[in-house]
Protein 1
Amino acid sequence: MTALADRAARAFEAEQPRRDWVLVGLWIALVVVAVVWLAPFVFIVFTSLKSTAEVMGSSAFAPPRDPQYANYAAAWGRGRFGTTVFNSAVITIVKVPLGLMISAMAAYALACMRIPGGKLILIGVLFGTMIPFQVMLAPLFTLVNGLHLIDTYPGVILPYIAFGIPYQVFILHGFFRGIPVELNEAARIDGASHATIFLKIFLPLSLPVLAALLILDFVATWNEFAMALVLLQDRDMWTLPLGLSAFQGQFSRDYGQLNAAIVMTVLPATIVYLIFQRYFVSGLTSGAVKG
Amino acid sequence: MTPQRLMQDDRLQAVLLLGPAIVIYLVFAIYPMIDVVVLSFQKWNGLDANRQFVGVGNYVDIFTRDPVFWRAFRNTVIWTALSLIFPPLIGLLLALGLNQPIFGRNALRAAYYLPVIIAPIAVATMWRWMYDPFFGLFAQILTALGRPNWIQDWLGNKDLALYSAFAAHVWQSAGFSMVLFLAGLQGVPKTLIEAARIDGAGRWDVFRHVTLPALRTTITIVLVLAVISSLKAFDIVYGLTGGGPAQATQMLALWAFTQAMQIFDFGRGSAIAVVLLVITLSVVVPYLSWTQRREESQE
């Protein structure tokens, strides 16, 4: 016992100074790499405030001498940001809460009610988390076209909901399963319906998970490009990513404005992320890594 | 039935709760997946009332008469292989570093994760500008370092373009692996690490014999997700190069899209998509059965 304690103490003493030194080195390395990691953002913001002449004449790392805030106004108009931001906002605001509600209802049914073939449905849902929807762009276009929903909000919101269901049901099902069965049974004996139990007990209990999924889904929907490209062909229906892609095609030599357009596209998701950071991590990892 | 009775009927409630999700999922996710298989055996321009059945004709076409298909296939394989190495490795190193008690580690984690939340199409637009051979970031850095002769047309050179595009993908996705590894590291038993250290094990020994085995599940998940996301590679390539120059960055997902939505050969586009689907399933099905088995053994 003394020998072990002795060895532990010695290991601790020998370890202490060396460990600090390693940690300092590690910290410096991590900070340096982080600066490199963030450098593109600084470069983009600097460029967005420069005139074309200054972009060509000055160093990329030089802050703008005479900030051209007009680049933002010009890019806003040329890139039709008013239209694309509005469309992205409508689609995101409708899709995210609606999709999450539908997923939560299904997750509750699968977790807490005895449903014939429930296990099979769950596997089918899990399967959907892994299938690349890029594979289905053409038939999706055919389907939505057949329903006369091309260039409409429902035409893109419904597929978005469909492709959000697997991950959300998977995560929420896992969470609902962790809630003691007795809670549900007691409420049932008191005469509560499943709808009541779901709304009054399970939803409030799962608020942290719902918040995490809400934030993740907000960013995913806001950023979605491939499906929008296929389902929204009319310029008046374009979302923000479609607008940025077209802007790049047309005005890629207007460096200042192009970079202003990038900043305006990236900013909303960045702000949401910086405010709700911790929810991202919990949302991503609550289902993915548990063992 | 009175409304009260209605609400007491379990079967009806199950239908009401589960129904919307099932209907939307079946119509907008499962049906298109089946339809893509059907379409792959047909000739269709996307508009005609009639779809003409051509058997395996589209598959014969893409395998024997379409050099771009093989180009895209090769690029997808390269992209996937690189995706299995670089983002997970960088993510693991960052996670190991940021799992230590160091100053400002939450801010550092946030910095590394930031690119993950940016739209891939915006990342593509950013990097395309950074790769500009005249005024872009990389040209400026090399000039500042006194190596202007190292400047390349990063996206215009067909030997480089694929790797240039991949670099942008690494920047965007390493933070995602990092977060998964950080979560995995929470599951490494601290007592085991302390015990090993007391026994005189060095850092490397602890990593090899304690940390790494404990991370096995996480590593599997990160790698499977890396494969799946690289098979989906679409936005970033579309935005950076559009598949060019000379198809040097063409990928299966993008080529399937181009065939169907731009050349209006829905049959061929779908056949390419089905090939991609089969490759995906060959990764997903074993993974899912592994997950099922693991869960059952835990219960």
Protein 2
Amino acid sequence: MAFDPSVNTKASGKAWSLARGYFVILSLPVLFLLLFFLWPLFTVVTRSFGVDEPLFAHFLTVFDRSSYIKVLGYTFQVAATVTVLCLLIAYPVAALIARLRGGWLQISFALILVPFWTSTVIRTYAWMVLFQRKGVINGFLLDLGLVDEPLRLMHNNIGVHIGMVHIMLPFMLLPLISAFRNIDPSFMRAAGVLGANPVRAFWHVYLPLSMPGVSAGVALVFITSLGFYITPALLGGAQNMMVAVLIEQQVSITVNWELASALATLLLLLTVALYILYDRVARRAGAGGVLE
Amino acid sequence: MMTWRTTGRVAKVAMVGFAAMVLLYLVMPTFVIVPMSFSDKLYLSFPPTEWSFRWYEAMAERVDYPQALWNSIKIGLPVALLATTFGTLAALGVVRGRFFGARPMSALVIAPLMLPQIILAIGLYPVMAKLGMAGTYPGVVIGHTVICIPLVFITVAASLKGYHPAYEYAAMTLGAGWWRTFWYVTFPMIRVGVIVGAILSFTFSFDELIIALFLTSPETRTLPRLLWEDLRQYVTPIIAAATTLVLCLSFVLFGALAVAQKRLQRDRSP
């Protein structure tokens, strides 16, 4: 770019107010988010208090009815189980992939990212195709004579868990792989040379070093699972409902916006509280907080 | 010592087998759909006995599928544009600016991605109704943009952190104004991050269901919403055919993203 002295004086005046300039730049997206993100959240919270009802009336309704408590409990239980299953499955697989090089590494990454890039509706539909009474898995099992009657794989716990683990697994694998790749393999060799057997070396060296990846993956999978809608709505049963499905039903079927808002406010508080907790823990462990 | 070595070898074989099964589990549903769509029967059997295009023909006869696809594109493109603009501005402000309140502001920009979408959906509906935008294109475009801003913010902020702001100071010292500094120095440096953010935003909008359920009408409904409504009524292979088409589109976008990211790596390591 040619040097142009004519703009020199104008620009030098602005250079001293760089911070203010960036503040102006930031104000546009922030205004947009205040209007279309914080205002909607504010609407949800105020609606949950109702208009003429006594304070916390709708929250009391939630805690009063055992069916709503059951939904909240089930949501927590599913999120916890999915998180544990993802961790148990992803840990050894990620440890293996982290040691790959070249072509095999790229193939593994592609296989992890393919489902990541397919919409959740479509993937859940695929599980419906596989799980139906006359679906692929039942047809296969009946042909082989392994079962006499089609198994019930959908509209129950099994379907929800298999479907949700499938969707959340990449979110656990990716932070784990990146954490494992940061572990220097010579640490494990050093532990071996110093007389530790592989189990001991794993327990005292590898596992502690992998904790940043574990905590990031666990937080991501657990918090995302709490708000799951598509998979439990299609693969779940009427008996076991997750809270996002209940909120949507309260709006579209019962048209009870106040109760839906009260449930959404509870979900919001819970999510924010979990993020703050994770931020504290991650900071203390020196792994960087949510914003890093 | 010997026992550990044998155990290690067995463990390694077991781990490789397990990893192969897990990767198969990850991709299997995606690849079951494609042969399904070419099946001849109403009931989904695998592998299909006879191949045919009848579900593609049936899909083409339904006017709602092409319309929903077109709606998704009409919503996704403005979302990508708006989210890229806002997300880039936010990243510039937070990463380059040093002022009081930058941290809570970056928390505000990231937050929409972290909350369950159902909360935003039931909050946006009354707001959009008040503004007269419920069920319109601008309504759902704004809803998707809110969630896509953090996607762009994250990718662009990463690009901005990848080089020293001294380049920009140098340009300004040499007399370039705001716009010239951005256009000739900053933008070429963060270009790949911006493009990746835009592709991610379009893909997100193209896939998103919950906000679309609340903010679209039957005229503006997106493809995921139409698939969803079909799935709740009856499962026919028409959905598999539509899905296969969407998959093709996703893979084109995925390829574009892979190319963009490869260029990002190349730009980073001179």
